Amino acid sequence: MELDIDIKSNKFQTKVYDKRNDFDFQIVKFPDTKSNIPNRVVLNVFVSQLLRFLRVCSEMDSFKIETKKLISSFQLKGCNRKILDNKILQTLTKHSKTFNKYTLFLSKNF
Predict the structure, then answer these.
(1) Which of 50, 53, 32 is nearest to 90 (CA)?
(2) Range of 77's domain?
(3) In the chain, how many domains are there?
């Protein structure tokens, strides 16, 4: 994964860019729950991607878009939506200072 940087209103805006999405064929990105990999490892991959999005995306909307795609990908790999939602909540709670950048960004602009 790479970084997409734009300048809007004289401010840098960053979001995730994944060149694998530009290919006209499917690429295996994440582990499957049906593999020999323990489910906790699969969920740790999910959390690490979520944290990457949290750190890279300067806008809440970009973070939400990437997170929805991530959830969909992991559901296709056999993950339970409720467990993924719990992991998101745990991650955002544990890393609340990083997540608060969206609130801080909004409050500075009003």
Answers:
(1) 50
(2) 2-108
(3) 1
